[in-house]
Design goal:
Length: about 375
């Protein structure tokens, strides 16, 4: 009950601090980066007491739920555990046992601290640290080894064994998030937990450490809030000026006839994420470009493909921009436009024709068509 009360109190205190900070900050346009998340991970664990790392490696898993309060700080409730291993080097014997741990971790976004607030950053490095409650159990192999002849001949190596034991722990680590899309991150984490000397069923006059290397996915929950535009206060209405008496109009000569200026036809054909097929709503733009080229037989068309740099990587985005421009090229050919009237190019994500912000970056999944 005390541990549950501690968790609830910590969450309430952090929420209060966050609200107070927001109330005292001068109003300005800032991204709202608060949200709930769930994480699942799996990997390897090593109980470091005595013996080599290779002999002590075992599987590990973790499940967490947390809340990001602002661009800098988050809090998560984390459950982890599985299998631990111990070894008696003197007699060449190892044994397994199980453990489970629940902990409360504070998370500091180091990338934002040192690199500024960027809601769509691809890679985010967190510093984690907190306290936990650990229970070890099912150490039957250690108990059997205790009663063996080999162990009894070496009592100095087997001075303490237990069946079940509980510990309050402290831990710290680093957590790397790689953004796959708005709601899903892939992550890598390394953490270390310091434990009582008796955790691995042995009394060796030194602390036991549990090291974990984990990989998994983090899922963002709830509504995704984008930056809110500031409220525009209209200027006060000015009184109407006194009427001005205009002079009598002077007759002007008739204007010369205006020669019709032929303006270029510009069409932006947009695509969905990681796609290069032309949707029906975008095919109408291709049809408008074809109509322009049919009306002006001497006109030519330049088509250039792009990809947004907030998703994927440079290699994938270069391929996507090429596939997108080829889709528009093939559509023009099928609609009767001669190949010599079409100039095509692709830029990958090296050029972003639209502003790279939350409202516009998706528009960079585009083929821009200019006919003139």
């Amino acid at each position: 009950m005390k541990f549950k009360t501690l968790i609830v109190s910590a969450l309430a205190a952090l929420a209060t601090l966050n609200v107070s900070a927001q109330e005292t900050t001068a109003p300005e346009v800032k991204p709202d980066m608060s949200y709930w998340f769930i994480g699942v991970q799996g990997g390897l664990g090593v109980t470091r007491g005595e013996g080599s790392f290779g002999d002590l490696m075992s599987p590990a898993a973790a499940l967490s739920v947390g809340y990001r309060f602002n661009p800098y700080f988050a809090l998560r409730l984390n459950g982890s555990g599985w299998t631990g291993k111990g070894v008696l080097p003197t007699i060449g014997e190892d044994y397994k046992y199980n453990y489970a741990q629940v902990g409360l971790d504070g998370m500091l976004d180091l990338t934002t601290v040192f690199g500024g607030v960027k809601p769509n950053r691809f890679a985010t490095l967190w510093l984690t640290g907190g306290v936990g409650y650990l229970r070890s159990f099912s150490n039957d192999e250690a108990l059997e080894l205790k009663n063996s002849v080999a162990a009894n001949n070496r009592p100095e190596m087997l001075t303490l064994y237990w069946d079940k034991r509980n510990y309050v722990t402290g831990r710290f680590g680093l957590h790397l998030d790689l953004r796959l899309c708005e709601r899903v991150n892939f992550n890598l984490e390394g953490n270390a937990t310091v434990l009582d000397d008796h955790f691995n069923s042995k009394d060796a006059d030194n602390a036991d450490w549990q090291f974990n290397i984990l990989a998994g996915f983090c899922f963002r929950l709830g509504k995704i809030n984008h930056p809110v535009a500031p409220v525009v206060v209209p200027e006060p209405v000015q009184p109407e000026p006194e009427p001005v008496v205009e002079p009598e109009p002077v007759a002007k000569p008739e204007p010369a006839p205006v020669v019709e200026e032929v303006k270029p036809c510009i069409q932006n054909v947009f695509f969905l994420i990681n796609r290069y097929d032309i949707r029906p709503s975008e095919m109408t733009k291709v049809d408008e470009a074809v109509a322009y080229l049919n009306k002006y037989p001497d006109a030519k068309i330049d088509i250039t493909g792009y990809a947004d740099k907030n998703t994927g990587n440079a290699t994938i985005n270069e391929r996507l921009s090429k596939q997108r421009v080829n889709s528009v090229y093939n559509a023009l050919i099928q609609k009767g436009i001669a190949a010599e009237r079409i100039n095509k190019d692709y830029k990958g994500d090296t050029v972003q024709p639209f502003a790279n912000d939350e409202a516009n970056y998706r528009k960079n999944r585009v083929v821009i068509c200019v006919a003139e």
